[in-house]
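Late entry, evening session. Most of the bench is empty. Finally got around to the prediction I had been postponing all week. Sequence below, unchanged from the version circulated by S.P.
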Amino acid sequence: MGLYIHADFQSEPARTLKEVSKMFTLTTSLSYSSIYSWETKVPIRSYSPSNEIIIGEFVSITLAEITVSLFMEDPDSHVKSVIIPKNYQQVLAFVFAIHAINKDAELLPNTTLGFKIYENSFDSRQSCKNALKLLFTGQGDPTNYNCAREDQAVAAIGGLTSQTSIQMARVFNAYKVPQFNYGSVDPALRDKIQFPSFYQMVPKEESQYIGIVQLLKHFGWTWIGLILSDNDSGETFLRTLRPRLLLSHICIAWMQVIPKIGGNFAEEVVEEKLRPIQLTLLLSEISVILVYGDRQSLEGLHMVLWLNEIIFMNPVQRVWITTAEWDYTAVWYRGKFTTKSFNGTLSFTLHSKQVPGFVDFIEKINPFQSAILFIKKFWFTAFLCSFPQYKFHAPSKVNCTGEEKLESLPRTVFEMEMSGQSYNIYNAVYAVAHALHAMDLARAKLKFRGDVDRWNLQKVQPWQLHSFLRNIHFNNSAGEDIFFDDSGDPTGGYDLINLVTFRNQSFQRVQVGRMEPDATPENGFTMNGNAIVWNHKFNQMQPSSTCVESCHPGQSMFVQPGKQVCCYDCVECPQGRISIQMDADQCEMCPEDQYPNKKQDQCIPKETIYLSYVEPLGDILAVLALFLSFITVVVMWIFIQHHNTPIVKANNWSITFTLLCSLLLCFLCSFLFIGRPGKVTCLLRQTVFSIIFSIAVACVLAKTITVVLAFMATKPGNRMRKWVGKRVAALVMILSSLIQIGICAVWLATSPPFPEFDMHSQVDTIIVQCNEGSALMFYMALGYMSFLAIISFTMAFFARKLPDTFNEAKLITFSMLVFCSVWVSFVPTYLSTKGKYMVAVEVFSILASGAGLLGCIFLHKCYIIVLRPELNTREQLVRKKNG
């Protein structure tokens, strides 16, 4: 066997895509069978083939393209392949797990595990062929026949990509062989109806979709580029992700599908296929690019980035967001890694945890002492040393000694830390071992029934493992619980890794986030943005990637017809609405107890208002009420002090005293309207006011009737003489007051007033007010009081020219004119005001109308009593009557 490296590592740098495609191509003359399969056993314990249980592993560690001209032509004749050293860790992790289980005295103590490793080379056709090889002899025997085969495979672990996994699953499901996927996240593989024997060691891709959206939303990246692999998985990814992006107002500015590049393509074809992606990356100003695909499907992108950075010295420096399938740090040979392009990359990776003993195991690997698949080819490719006896010749011509240390290799070639795929392989092997162990324990319990062979591990059939695998639950050596949930999915999630590169071609992976599998999108995604190292292009400033400048608080987005949702205009919020965040979908109303500020970017608590004693308006009304109350008390004192004088006796002292008391209470009831409304004050303020004012007006009406009856009684033979006296006045006052009391009683019984908060009448204030309960009852009480006033005014008006000593009828007429004028003006004014001003209008009307009655009826009499006592005599009274 011999291997030829197509391009010299020290040669003049290539300048075109044609030359670069040559540098990325390695060809080999290895035979078809030696490339694609390898069978071995681990001599850890002394065991015989009769008690060996086989687990098969299917890996993809070489990229190969097979060109077949005719169906009759042997495919072995056209093979080009190159090994990927970093993927070889998946082989070592598998062997390490088998080695650890066979050394464990408690797990499968009487059973030895063997293994077979097959190389799929990222090829679905070869995957199908290798699956049949594991099931049958692989020596030309017909399918479904196990001629001269003593070992039996109970499970298969693989493959790395969705295409290879699906092809293998179609074969293994036909024979109910458990298959464990360790690398593919294709949702089609989770169809338990189509693939009932398939077990996922990879978390649901749903978690990765959610993580991508949450990551973009976290940094406000709404305008991104998208690069996809040219296969079914890429189409599924786009079909699933695009609606999620649109729901979060994230748009795809441009999309490129990376064509599959193989060694059998002509140089012109390679250049033509890669030119669009190269032009897009060079001309686009998009800062964030999302990439989906695996190592093989994205080789064209890797080639373009290598060309721009290494050859043209113009690295494509962006924020690369990659999915778990693509390890972009891997290189084919000891060439240069595109550190400038990938610095600051954010990658979703399969969750991994370092397993004790793994690093020690791989450090002791010696290619001359191990028969593991491709160990020498891996050693040759990784260390660039020769194996003359195996016809592997490196350009350096230095022979491999076997003492080379894997830890000395650059991380772009090989990493000592266990990768996510290797961790899944390790757990899958242990899952099979624990299922076999559970089966062995169940067999021991059936010994007393004589049914020993039912689950004999040496005679076990693959389909018998399923019932044990579905209920598997164990703690691995890394300290994590491994089990499948009710849907058959594993419990692991995805880690978000930030790649930090250095000038010496080395790099460091830093975990900056985590996507839990079963949590909600808001709670499942955790992120430490401060720990991220961005690409040098951004000078450690958080990159921005939007179609337009973000809308500021106080604005909302407006999408123009025909444009993507991310390319919007910013419009100011309508009056009364706000937006408190950048790029708000729409403006929102403030809570009822708050209102927008001038910039409309936040809500301010509303001021609670009512007619208070601490404000000037409330103080003025309170002082005025006290002053009028004082005047009323003074008038009452004057009348009491002079109750025996003719002028007081002539005005019916009982009516006068009742009127003065009611006026005093009217002035004092104003204080029910001032101050914060409460339950008691709301119940009392309108009803007390209505009853007291009705009594006052009834007193005026009684005085008017008394004047009229007194004049009529002076005529000879008039029958009205018997009605003159206190009984008529008392009857009028009592009857008029009882009617108003009845109205108020019905009001309080049916729909009483109550305190309320008016949130909507004024934008910036909350009005604490009394709801009248029933507006009908309120206006009935007010209307009845007005009715009494109109009757009193009418009677006084017609009696104004009657001969009276002190013009009592005229004074009553004028006082009722003032009273009615105040309350007629009150109604429109009251209805046109809000809040405390409405209350102030009512208080002022109470004080003004009461002052009108007090002044018009009693001011003239007090003047005579106090200042003109000579007029307050019986002679003067008789003279005026006779005159």
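Two things to note before I forget:
The first strand starts at residue 3 and ends at 5.
Residues 1-15, 18-50, 65-79 have pLDDT under 50 and may be disordered.
Will write this up properly tomorrow.
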